[in-house]
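It is worth pausing here to work through a concrete case rather than discussing structure prediction in the abstract. The textbook approach is simple: state the sequence, then state the predicted structure, then interpret. We follow exactly that order.
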Amino acid sequence: MPKLVTPLNDTQIKKAKPKAKEYLLADGKGLALRVKPNGSKMWLFTYSKPYTKKRAQISFGMYPDVTLSDARTSRAEARALLAKDIDPKEHKEAFANDKAAEAKSTFEAVVREWIDLKEPKVSARYAFNLRRGFELHLFPYLGKVPISKLSAQQAIEALKPLAAADKLDILGRICRRVNEVMEFAINTGRIQTNNLSGISKAFDSAKHESMASFTPQELPKLISIVNSANIKLMTRCLFEWQLHTMVRPGEAAGAAWHEIDFENKLWNIPAKRMKKRKAHSVPLSPQALSILEYLKPISAHREFIFPADKDPRAHASRETLGAALRRMGLIGKQTAHGLRALASTTLNEQGFDADVIEAALAHVDKNKVRAAYNRTDYLERRRKMMCWWSDHIEDASKGNYSVTGNQHLKII
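Step two, the predicted structure:
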């Protein structure tokens, strides 16, 4: 029969004096107060480990920081774990390890790790904007939250200011990037499920007009509007460059001199700057080359063909041309991205091969089987088509638009 132990009381504990050797004051059911020669008092719980039944001990903390009542509560919790064959000491260590892991895996820490992995595959400007978006809109609210504890409601609350400011494009991009981060956290073992997968549904979607464009018949009108607009020379050149080359706004704005192969009349855009992360070569028409010749005295000593106004070491923003078109009163009528739609529509109407047009636009075939067999980039056929397109633009700029003009060049 177990020895009966009289439970301790606060008076006994307070009056317990140090002795030459440490000693224990038992409270029963494994709990005792150890009094050391220096006068310190610590709560200890002694128990038999599940399965092995080896004797083990766990500390509940120092008295008086941990009161008698607190120690008894800890004892009850430990005994409840033992009843389930869980070692309380191992449970405590696992909990501490989880807390340490949480401290290292805050939302901000995981985001920065994700960006570090992504950075070598994207442009410096894209990486900068990626960081900036999180630093401005999420880190102040969510940065210190362990990613395993992050809730959809927390994320939605953090993003509400963007929605209130009607910055729905930025909001949409951030929601997509947050979900990429959460998928990364799953793949690296930080979390089991993505609690934020539906946060975008809490907000209105941006009304996209990215493909708004003039009709082929209105090309002379568009050129006339741009020609008469009060815009900077570099913006005007950027408009002509993007129109002639049919690339995306970001690809045009980020054009670098080292990407130009003057000998072969090609603009070789590296994969990291392309939307689909696939390198793309643009055949340069005589008109496109003349734009470069015009810009050589202005920016050839720089890295980028279209330097940024505020920092000529950087390139112009992908939003530069779009913002200029909006200031011209073309909201909902013509966007920078819509220049590609204008080119595509014109070339399709003129009977050019659809595959050649798609290759010129750097579109990736969604049919994976077809894409696997179709390895050609139609470079020489694209060169002839791009020359036709530039001639067509030149004719339109003179007010000589004709849907049948120069058609002999398109038979490729």
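Step three, interpretation. The CA atoms of residues 98 and 114 lie 21 Å apart. Residues 168-187 form the longest helix (20 residues).
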